[in-house]
Amino acid sequence: xxxxxxxxxxxxxxxxxxxxxxxxxxxxxxxxxxxxxxxxxxxxxxxxxxxxxxxxxxxxxxxxxxxxxxxxxxxxxxxxxxxxxxxxxxxxxxxxxxxxxxxxxxxxxxxxxxxxxxxxxxxxxxxxxxxxxxxxxxxxxxxxxxxxxxxxxxxxxxxxxxxxxxxxxxxxxxxxxxxxxxxxxxxxxxxxxxxxxxxxxxxxxxxxxxxxxxxxxxxxxxxxxxxxxxxxxxxxxxxxxxxxxxxxxxxxxxxxxxxxxxxxxxxxxxxxxxxxxxxxxxxxxxxxxxxxxxxxxxxxxxxxxxxxxxxxxxxxxxxxxxxxxxxxxxxxxxxxxxxxxxxxxxxxxxxxxxxxxxxxxxxxxxxxxxxxxxxxxxxxxxxxxxxxxxxxxxxxxxxxxxxxxxxxxxxxxxxxxxxxxxxxxxxxxxxxxxxxxxxxxxxxxxxxxxxxxxxxxxxxxxxxxxxxxxxxxxxxxxxxxxxxxxxxxxxxxxxxxxxxxxxxxxxxxxxxxxxxxxxxxxxxxxxxxxxxxxxxxxxxxxxxxxxxxxxxxxxxxxxxxxxxxxxxxxx
Length: 571
Fold this sequence. Notes:
By secondary structure, this protein is mainly alpha-helical. The chain has helices at residues 12-15, 20-37, 49-55, 69-94, 99-117, 126-132, 141-159, 165-176, 206-235, 239-262, 269-283, 300-309, 320-333, 350-373, 390-403, 412-431, 436-449, 455-484, 497-501, 539-563.
């Protein structure tokens, strides 16, 4: 089997191929992806998505998946150094006595403030309008900036929570001080910029220092106000609205991070991933099964995905640099086997798909081992071992290996021995303890049956592959038919009962528009594969097949939901 999925999306190899902040964004996008598609896998016991979203602004916790404390500390140090250099440069520019040096820096700082303030004010607000307009003529840019910053702080006081009034009042007090005094900073001779002439070095101006400090405080206050607003809005959402918000944010973040990664080397990342998608479809083998009405052209990617899942090579969706390294390694090995590489649209779904691939392999292995016991049918003996069930025992061993998330190839012999022990145990219950020679033959048969090239394994895999593909396409057809028959559950025109009941309410009620929810196969009422696939009649295998269809259907729905406009289909 292949290495199972891990709670960490990025690994050490990825850390060397992407900028640190892009890795941070990738982990955040993956967390939102899991909250949208499989929240049970990331939510702590007794917690809801609201607890995670309200804690850190739209689902960004303090420690995203795949980021250790060392990486977080490193990112913090990088940001601290960059911010310090930015504000130091701003202070030097504003301390210059030349207006032509001060004005460009003020314009840049006003632009940063405008970008930060925009979500808190309507576009026609006077502060937004003033920040957007060119500078008025002035003989003293710093004094004009002081007056303007006071207007900004007053506007923020009108919109901030009462809890933040003290912070705003402190800023107003600083700006009202007619004679700001700041202790001169000690210049470190070891950190003097040798590239700048000494004649250009200016001592920090107290007024410039005041303006820089106030601007920093304004930006910090704005972020706090955004957090307060986000917490308030999230707290007033219903569960359905919160779920839809998570889905929308997960879709936006996934698209953004994938386009950033594949668009970093060349311009036009969207065009690039469309070409990769098309190449993947062209190189995919033909369908393993056929449906009565044929497969719609735009759904043939599902056939390609099922083929990839049923391959004996682990599927992957490598980042651009990783894909180059993989191709180089394969060319050196000259294995002659095709890669099982998925296009970028599957990047965040790849861990779940790898888990599904392991499930499929485990189901085929269990069915193959069951075929060995049919040489001597196992008796369901209630006298010897009333609680023993061969298939359940085999499935427990295989499922435990998958769920461990760390399949160690060095212990492969031990796992084969465990499976062989169960086969021998079943044979013993049916026809007595085998002779040593027969036991050795059984163990050899178990080892041979587990190989992907074994004829029995291949036969069962083809049957399973066809059943999964047919069921997926059938579900999609059913959902399309239901969508065409959709009609409103209730009339939406006329008077609003909720509004009528609250006409005397003093406080306005917060309302959120209901958007169409993301439709997932997980919500399907019946996904049991029917008719029963030959060789997989055991209840435990049928339940496992249902789990595969549910998980795979959910991945298919999500990829289509996020990337439908980027899927190019061969004609």
